[in-house]
Amino acid sequence: MLTKTKIYLSSPHMGGTEQKFVADAFDTNWIAPLGPHVDGFENDLRRYLGNDKHVAVLSSGTAAIHLALQLLNVSNGDEVLCQSFTFSASANPILYQGATPVFIDSEPDTWNMSPELLEIAIKDRIEKHKKPKAIIAVHLYGMPYKANEINVIARKYEIPVIEDSAEALGSTYFNQNCATLSDIGILSFNGNKIITTSGGGALIANTQSLKEKAVFLSTQARDNAPHYEHSSIGYNYRMSNVLAGIGRGQMEVIDDRVNARRQNFEFYKKNLSQFNSIEFLQEPQGFVSNRWITCIKTDSFETREQIRLTLSEDDIESRPLWKPMHMQPIFKDCLHFTNGISEDLFDKGLCLPSGSNLSQDDLDRILNNILKTPNL
Ligand SMILES: *Cc1c(COP(=O)(O)O)cnc(C)c1O
């Protein structure tokens, strides 16, 4: 009997040279959260991202957001403005700092933070003597947010921006790489992301001294002394040299990974855009998405569920779009500035399998299942 294998939403895709770097780490006994691959991976990323940035590789994207908040002196009682339509890891580090998130809804062109609602929220908080300490904007599913508009508002009120690029390595905004468009960028190399180190992240800083401060905090904040002296709270957030080796191998194939994901999107769009019940997110002029995940917006919750359940019966993973943070039980008491857009996306949207390792047979199998949906 022919058994079909499960198709995942986004699974790791090794390029082939990763094990050579890992073997080198073993051969040289650099089995530690420092070593030549840590430096090498940082240099690879620095070269790739451009814009004269400084990169610190860390244990996760969540750790990078946490350190970014520390570097911006966000602390107990502060408010931080955060995109509501995102994964919870964008917002959880605000709570780690004892600060309070205020959630901002999306605009329709990119599904990311609405500049209009951002400014309304800032004015409201300033009026109440609660000027926000930082803004966390997210390039969700790889689509760049409206960085120029957000930056103009952020500068006007002098509030720094943390750019959550966990899903957007390889996306560009008017020819600049995502993760380099703001005060501090963050990346993730979790197993489901466009490239992976199994788990990992990076903080992208504008200056060498900010990078050094991030590295200092990520390695237990040891002051300069022969014994262990601590005058600030430290974290164990540095990336392992073994995992950085995987990252170096993955950086050799990043362009192929972006192309493959973009081709998945084109395949779905070509074969599904004739249905009025399915909409795709278009790239505005100057925006290039890595299409980390191909998302569709259907005409109703029922259509969305029909597609999801049909796929699931054939062992194909798909998933509703992110449930907005302002609807999450953990954040239910948080202030939010909303317009219904993220709630509508959560109601009708679906993430389709989007791995760079999907074969044409996989894509055809997914498509044939979607075409079986009665509501289309
Ligand atoms: C994956 C992800 C993170 C967290 O990154 P980890 O490396 O998994 O900690 C943060 N924000 C977004 C939008 C993500 O998708």
Mean pLDDT across the residues is 97
Could you name the CATH homologous superfamily of the largest domain?
Type I PLP-dependent aspartate aminotransferase-like (Major domain)
CATH topology of the largest domain: Aspartate Aminotransferase, domain 2
The unreliable regions are none
Bound molecules: pyridoxal-5'-phosphate
Beta-strand proportion: 5-15%
What's the total count of β strands?
Answer: 15
Briefly, what CATH class of the largest domain? Alpha Beta
Secondary structure class reads: alpha/beta
How many strands, what sense, and barrel or not for the largest sheet?
8 strands, mixed
Q: Helical content, roughly?
A: 25-40%
Quickly give the CATH architecture of the largest domain: 3-Layer(aba) Sandwich
Concise account of the structure shown:
Keywords: Aminotransferase, Pyridoxal phosphate, Transferase. The chain is α/β, with parallel strands linked by helices. The protein is 36% helix and 15% strand.
Describe this structure in words.
It is a single chain. The strands form 3 sheets. The chain has an 8-stranded mixed β-sheet with strand order 1-9-8-5-4-2-3-14, sandwiched between helices. A 4-stranded antiparallel β-sheet has the order 10-12-15-13. A 3-stranded antiparallel β-sheet has the order 7-6-11, with no helix packed on it. The longest helix is centred in the last third of the chain and has 19 residues, at 254-272. It starts with 17 loop residues before the first helix and ends in a 5-residue tail after the last helix. It folds into 2 domains: 18-251, Type I PLP-dependent aspartate aminotransferase-like (Major domain) (Aspartate Aminotransferase, domain 2, 3-Layer(aba) Sandwich); 254-371, Aspartate Aminotransferase, domain 1, CATH 3.90.1150. The protein is globular and about 70 Å long. Strand 4, helix 6 (147-156) and strand 5 form a beta-alpha-beta unit. Helix 1 (18-27) runs antiparallel to helix 8. The protein has helices at 18-27, 36-49, 61-71, 92-96, 115-127, 147-156, 208-218, 241-251, 254-272, 301-313, 341-348, 360-371, and strands spanning 54-58, 79-83, 100-104, 134-138, 161-164, 172-173, 176-177, 184-188, 201-205, 278-280, 287-288, 294-298, 319-320, 336-337, 349-352. The protein is built from 12 helices and 15 strands. By secondary structure, the chain is of the alpha/beta class. Pyridoxal-5'-phosphate binds at residues 60-62, 86-87, 89-90, 138, 164, 166-167, 188, 190, 201.
